[in-house]
């Protein structure tokens, strides 16, 4: 479990308690908000040294660092963030949490092709003569072979040809020759689905 460590300084007890509650509630299963120190008053050198030792960010809500605290923070590269609106604190902490999360993997189907003939080529293996049903098929893309609604192979498209010419992709409505990587048990009526994995920003 990752932790976003915070030191919270505020102008009043009410503000401090509201902030601590709101920030703690932002915790997620993969990354937690941990408030290692919270107090009323200005930001001091002690706060900065505690932040340095623990790897925390200092949040000042209507609270400011004194001259000594500023100097030490600059020297020790401790992050002090100053706010006057609770909403802005929450939005910034959300962004920080999002930055600590792993990107989400999402499968995107590019297209599919039906096998209409098979050709066994010496030294190459089985090449499937296909008709692209939807989208497009792309050379070197991930692929799965589906027979009777069941996935029987997962791998990639090794070669893609049109009229014996190597091509990068073939669109819907066209015929092509597909060779799957390390797989030859292809039958007429099989469907080859072509897809890719995209990384997207996690949503909080």
Structural notes for this entry:
There is one protein chain. The protein is of the alpha+beta class and 204 residues long. It folds into 2 domains: 2-100, Rossmann fold, CATH 3.40.50; 105-200, Translation factors (Elongation Factor Tu (Ef-tu), domain 3, Beta Barrel). Helix content is 23%, strand content 49%. The chain has helices at 13-24, 45-54, 67-76, 86-100, and strands at 2-10, 31-40, 57-61, 80-83, 104-121, 125-138, 142-147, 150-162, 165-166, 169-171, 175-180, 191-200. The strands form 2 sheets. A 6-stranded antiparallel beta barrel has the order 5-6-11-8-7-12. Helix 3 links the parallel strand 3 (57-61) and strand 4 (80-83). It is rod-shaped, with a radius of gyration of 29 Å. The two termini are 16 Å apart. 27% of the residues are buried. The mean pLDDT is 92.
Give me the secondary-structure topology.
Layout: E1 2-10, H1 13-24, E2 31-40, H2 45-54, E3 57-61, H3 67-76, E4 80-83, H4 86-100, E5 104-121, E6 125-138, E7 142-147, E8 150-162, E9 165-166, E10 169-171, E11 175-180, E12 191-200
Parallel strand pairs: 1-2, 1-3, 3-4
Antiparallel strand pairs: 5-6, 5-12, 6-10, 6-11, 7-8, 7-12, 8-9, 8-11
Helix pairs in contact: 1-4, 2-3
H/E series, N to C? Answer: EHEHEHEHEEEEEEEE
Structural class: alpha+beta
> What's the CATH H-level homologous superfamily of the largest domain?
Translation initiation factor IF- 2, domain 3
Number of helical stretches of at least 4 residues? 4
How much of the sequence lies in strands comes to: over 45%
Read across the widest sheet, the strand sequence of neighbours is 5-6-11-8-7-12
Q: What Rg, in angstroms, do the CA atoms define? A: 29 Å
In one word, what is the shape?
rod-shaped
Mind telling me the CATH class of the largest domain? Alpha Beta
Main beta-sheet strand count, sense and barrel state = 6 strands, antiparallel, barrel
| CATH architectural category of the largest domain | 3-Layer(aba) Sandwich
Average pLDDT for all residues: 92
Helix content: 10-25%
Span from first to last CA?
A: 16 Å
């Amino acid at each position: 479990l990752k932790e976003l460590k915070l030191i919270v300084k505020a102008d009043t007890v009410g503000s401090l308690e509201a902030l601590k509650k709101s920030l703690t509630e932002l915790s997620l299963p993969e990354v937690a908000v941990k408030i290692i120190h919270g107090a009323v008053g200005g930001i001091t050198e002690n706060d900065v040294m505690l932040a340095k030792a623990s790897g925390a960010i200092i949040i000042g809500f209507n609270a400011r660092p004194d001259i000594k605290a500023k100097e030490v923070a600059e020297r020790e590269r401790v992050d002090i963030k100053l706010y006057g609106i609770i909403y802005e604190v929450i939005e910034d902490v959300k962004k920080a949490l999002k930055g600590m999360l792993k990107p989400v993997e999402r499968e995107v189907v590019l297209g599919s092709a039906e096998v209409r003939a098979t050709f066994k080529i010496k030294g190459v293996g089985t090449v499937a003569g296909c008709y692209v049903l939807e989208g497009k098929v792309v050379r070197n893309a991930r692929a799965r072979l589906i027979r009777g609604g069941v996935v029987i192979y997962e791998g990639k498209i090794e070669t893609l040809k049109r009229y014996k010419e190597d091509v990068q992709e073939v669109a819907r409505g066209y015929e092509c020759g597909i060779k799957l990587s390390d797989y030859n048990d292809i039958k007429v009526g099989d469907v080859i689905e072509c897809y890719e994995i995209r990384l997207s920003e996690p949503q909080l």
